[in-house]
Amino acid sequence: MPFHASSFNILLGKLWVHKRGKTPPNRLEQLPLFKLEPKNDIHGELSFAVQGRIVPFMGFVQSDDSPRDGVCFPEWISHLKKLVNTLLRKNQVSFSFKENDAMDGPFFEFVRETDKVFFSLSRPLGNSCFKAEPGWEMEEFKFHDLLLQFFKFKDDFLREIQKANYSLRDEWEAKFAKKKPESPQE
Questions:
Q1: Which of left, alpha, beta for 22 (phi over 0: left; psi -120 to 50: alpha)?
Q2: Do 15 and 44 meet the contact criterion of CB atoms below 8 Å apart?
Q3: Is the dihedral of CA 60, 15, 76, 144 positive or negative?
Q4: Would residue 184 count as lying in a domain?
Q5: What is the number of structural domains in the chain?
Q6: Nearest-5° angle of CA 165, CA 83, CA 180?
Q7: How many other C-beta atoms are found inside a 10 Å radius of the C-beta of residue 149?
Q8: How many Cα neighbours within 13 Å face the side chain of 163?
């Protein structure tokens, strides 16, 4: 993952395809990205860096020492798109999400105050309670850096898809697009 000096970075690493295997039954298999087919999920390495420090626990695992399964990109693209759209709406606004809602993933919070964003990370304690992760409470970075990094991430991700399977680039680019209003029912 190349690292560019910025107050906030989105770092894209290795990508792979998840498919259900035959042995053992329903076991997820990691396949190279060139095996990408329509409707496959892409998983892989994704990290945030705030002021040069890598945010722990991305690609949800029970402890930071456990092997990672990687982030689920359809989920993370949705979170990042909502984050950027929400923070663009107002000069003072917050957005939060939990990685992998079905499991006890970490809780990410972003608070925009004009040209600054404050980032906090919490870990689950059980019973829908979270505890702030020491050293990750209201870490400040520039809003402008978040915007630049989002569009850089989008370009880098789509470039990897295009290299793996050119015909699927549009399918994945649509995941970054804003939802179009639904047509009224007649």
A1: alpha
A2: yes
A3: positive
A4: no
A5: 1
A6: 65
A7: 22
A8: 10
Asked if the structure places residue 78 within a domain, the reply is yes
User: Of 107, 89, 118, 109, which is closest to residue 7 (Cα–Cα)?
Assistant: 118
- How crowded is residue 20: how many other Cβ atoms within 10 Å of its Cβ? 9
pLDDT digits (tens, 9 = 90+) for 113-159: 999 999 999 987 766 678 889 999 999 999 999 999 999 999 999 99
Report the SS3 class of residue 149: helix
Measured CA to CA, the distance from residue 109 to residue 81 in angstroms comes to 14
SS3 for 79? helix
Q: Domain span at residue 139? A: 8-175
| 127 belongs to a structural domain | yes
Task: Tell me the whole-structure pTM to 2 decimals.
Answer: 0.84
Q: What is the pLDDT of residues 90-118, one digit of tens each?
A: 999 999 998 876 566 788 999 999 999 99
Task: Identify residue 104 by its one-letter amino acid code.
Answer: D
φ, ψ (nearest 5 deg) of residue 11: -110, 120
- Residue 36 forms part of a structural domain: yes
Q: How far is CA 59 from CA 153, 159, 165, in A?
A: 16, 21, 24
Specify the pLDDT at position 184: 38
